[in-house]
Design brief:
By secondary structure, this protein is mainly β. The chain starts with 5 loop residues before the first helix and ends with a strand. The longest helix has 6 residues, at 6-11. The protein contains 1 helix and 29 strands. An 8-stranded mixed sheet has the order 23-24-25-26-10-29-28-27. It has a 5-stranded mixed sheet with strand order 2-9-8-5-6, with no helix packed on it. Strands 11-12-13-14 form a 4-stranded antiparallel sheet, with no helix packed on it. The chain has 2 domains: 18-113, Coagulation Factor XIII, Chain A, domain 1; 120-357, TolB, C-terminal domain (Neuraminidase, 6 Propeller).
C-alpha cells in the first residue's frame, strides 16, 4: 500500500466521514426527528422525515424544504419520504415549517449526501518527456492548434528567488520554447486558463476578476468581475460554459459572457467531500482535476460531482530536477490529435505525455 499517497486514500473513499453540523435547533418548539436519520446518505436512499413534538401541540401541517427548495408537505405529523436520487452531492439543509394552533414554527437539520461510486485506481504509461520552463509556476494548461496555452502564477520563491510575474504564454511543447507571452501586473496572481470560442479565459487568485484574450494575438479584450467574492483556482470548459473552482469542493458552471453562475456541483467520493480542486481539463465528457498539494488526478462526473477514478502520479515528481522551489503536480492538457494527456507541475523542468490505462 506504500505506493498510494494520502489523496488516493481519500479519493478511493477510505477517509473517515465527518459528523459535523448535524444538530437540531435546541430552542425550537418542534425539531426534526433524527432518531431514524443518518449522518450520511447515498443517492439511492431516501429520507424519512417527521417532527418531534414534545409539548404535544396540535399540528395542522408541515412543509419541508431542502436547501431552500420545497420538497413536499404533509397533514398533521405524517411521515414524508423523500428520494435523494436527484439531489446534488453535499450537505442537505433540511428545514421544516410547522403550522399548529393558528401559529407556525421553523426548525432545521442537516445530513450529508456522498457518492455511491467506488472510484477506480487507474494506471498510466509515459509516452514522451518534454522540457518545461523551471520558472513557470503552472496554474493552467491547455492545447490549442498544436500549441500549449499556459497560465502561470507568481511562484513560491522560497529558496532560489524564482518568484516572478504571472503570465499567459503560448509554448511549443516539444522544445519548451515560449512563442508568445503576456505578463500580468505584479499585484495580480494568475490562476487557471481555458480556451472557448477562440477566446482565452484566465482567472486570478485574489483579484476577483477574470480576463478575456484573443487566442491568436493575446490582446486583452475584456476584464470581467466574478459573480461573488471568491478565490479563483482552476478553469476549464465543457464547450458551452466555463467550469471554475475556488479552492473548496465546489466547481461552478459559469456563463463565459458575464461570469454569472449557471450551476454548480460538489466533488465527493463514497466517503467525503474533496476540497482544493485546482487545475482542471475537460476530457471526453469528464472533468480531470488536480487536487492542490496532492500528486494525483481525480476524474469527476460533471453531472453530480462524483469521483469516478483516480490516477496516482506521485512518481513523476521524482523524475524532475529537485530544487528548493519545486512544488506540486499541477497542469493537465489533453491533445485530441494523439488522445494523450500532458501533465507537469509548479516549477517543474519537465512535462510528461502520458496514456491512461485500467
Amino acid at each position: 500500500m506504500k505506493k498510494y499517497n494520502s489523496l488516493a486514500f481519500i479519493l478511493l473513499g477510505l477517509a473517515i466521514a465527518s459528523c459535523e453540523g448535524n444538530k437540531n435547533n435546541s430552542e425550537n418548539l418542534f425539531s426534526i426527528n433524527s432518531d431514524n436519520l443518518k449522518v450520511q446518505y447515498q443517492p439511492q436512499e431516501s429520507l424519512a422525515l417527521t417532527l418531534k413534538n414534545p409539548e404535544n401541540k396540535t399540528l395542522d401541517s408541515v412543509i419541508y424544504y431542502i436547501n431552500d427548495k420545497k420538497i413536499g408537505s404533509v397533514k398533521g405529523n405524517a411521515k414524508l419520504d423523500f428520494a435523494l436520487a436527484e439531489q446534488k452531492l453535499g450537505y442537505q439543509n433540511i428545514k421544516a415549517l410547522a403550522y399548529y394552533e393558528g401559529e407556525n414554527d421553523e426548525t432545521s437539520y442537516r445530513v450529508e449526501l456522498v457518492s455511491n461510486i467506488q472510484p477506480k485506481l487507474l494506471s498510466y504509461t509515459i509516452v514522451n518527456t518534454y522540457p518545461h520552463d523551471l520558472k513557470a509556476y503552472t496554474q493552467g494548461l491547455e492545447f490549442h492548434n498544436g500549441l500549449l496555452i499556459e497560465s502561470t502564477g507568481n511562484g513560491a520563491g522560497n529558496g532560489t528567488g524564482l518568484r516572478g510575474i504571472s503570465s499567459l504564454r503560448k509554448t511549443d511543447y516539444k522544445t519548451g520554447k515560449v512563442n508568445k507571452i503576456v505578463e500580468l501586473p505584479e499585484q495580480v496572481f494568475g490562476e487557471g486558463c481555458t480556451i472557448l470560442n477562440n477566446k482565452v479565459y484566465q482567472i486570478t487568485y485574489k483579484n476577483n476578476e477574470g480576463y478575456v484574450y484573443n487566442v491568436d494575438t493575446f490582446e486583452k479584450e475584456k476584464t470581467i468581475k466574478y459573480f461573488k467574492n471568491m478565490e479563483g483556482w482552476g478553469l476549464t470548459n465543457d464547450g458551452k460554459n466555463l467550469l471554475m473552482s475556488d479552492g473548496s469542493e465546489k466547481i461552478y458552471f459559469i456563463n463565459p459572457n458575464d461570469f454569472k453562475e449557471v450551476d454548480y456541483i460538489n466533488v465527493y467520493t463514497a466517503g467525503s467531500k474533496i476540497k482544493a480542486v485546482n487545475e482542471m481539463e475537460w476530457i471526453d465528457g469528464k472533468i480531470y482535476a488536480n487536487i492542490y498539494t496532492m500528486d494525483a488526478i481525480a476524474i469527476i462526473n460533471p453531472k453530480n460531482g462524483a469521483v469516478e477514478a483516480v490516477i496516482n502520479l506521485s512518481d513523476l515528481k521524482s523524475k524532475v530536477t529537485q530544487h528548493p522551489d519545486i512544488d506540486v503536480l499541477n497542469g493537465i492538457a489533453y491533445n485530441p490529435a494523439t488522445k494523450t494527456i500532458f501533465v507537469t507541475g509548479k516549477n517543474w523542468d519537465k512535462m510528461f505525455e502520458i496514456k491512461i490505462t485500467e
